[in-house]
Design goal:
Chains A, B: Keywords: DNA-binding, Transcription, Transcription regulation. The structure is a homodimer. By secondary structure, chain A is an alpha+beta fold. Chain A has one domain: Arc Repressor Mutant, subunit A (Orthogonal Bundle). Chain A is built from 5 helices and 3 strands, in the order ααβααββα. In chain A, α2 packs across α4. Chain A is elongated, with a radius of gyration of 21 Å. At the A-B interface, α1, α2, α3 and α5 of A face α1, α2, α3 and α5 of B.
């Protein structure tokens, strides 16, 4: 015969009262979206590329001008840029021979806002 | 006899003038640090855990109250929490049987600030 041990659903005595302990603070969908975007930035070269595009005139740069700052080959840089585009952080436009990448400020601001909301929840 | 091909130090004709094209907008060390922290958040469970801890009273939660919100086993939750601690986003304190995790607001704010700086560079 086996007995089932109930999970500790109720807060322990020394935990704060009145907390919706079991409610996740963000929805699974939101967490999935945020994690996907954070993953796009989980590489130093991609952080440098995003910052370099952002610091370019009109927040736009030709891929031909992005290889030197990060010290990587153009195929590697293009691979990293593709990930940033797929994450919605950069917009890509082909002009003749070269691809140009432009910052999507709203996407970066939304990510910063999500982090700020986390600290704002601390009250 | 070999000849060396100079790297394109000067901006190309159709690039904006006066841009330090070859200077990375963030230092390699900063990019490395940021990427490492973003990597800690590149998982939906970790995003949910960080947000749930942040939304707890005093931005602190017992690991025993964190398994239900994310619907994962305690070893898995502990693994994810360890990554958040190593990234400096949470502080861990053992109290008797249970580990308690507290938000490190400055670390989250620094990350948000780095993203805000990226958008601010767009001028």
């Amino acid at each position: 015969m086996t007995t089932t041990v109930p999970l500790p659903l109720a807060p322990t005595a020394d935990a704060g009262c009145c907390t919706p302990e079991r409610a996740p603070a963000v929805t699974p969908d939101t967490a999935q979206d945020l994690a996907r975007t954070f993953k796009a930035l989980a590489d130093p070269a991609r952080v440098q590329l995003l910052a370099t595009v952002a610091a370019s005139p009109d927040a736009e740069a030709c891929v031909c001008d992005l290889t030197a700052p990060v010290g990587l080959s153009q195929p590697t840089v293009s691979h990293h840029l593709k990930i940033l585009v797929e994450a919605g952080l950069l917009h890509r436009e082909q002009r003749g021979r070269w691809a140009y990448y432009r910052l999507v400020p709203d996407a970066v601001a939304a990510l910063a806002g999500a982090l700020t909301a986390v600290t704002a929840a601390d009250d």
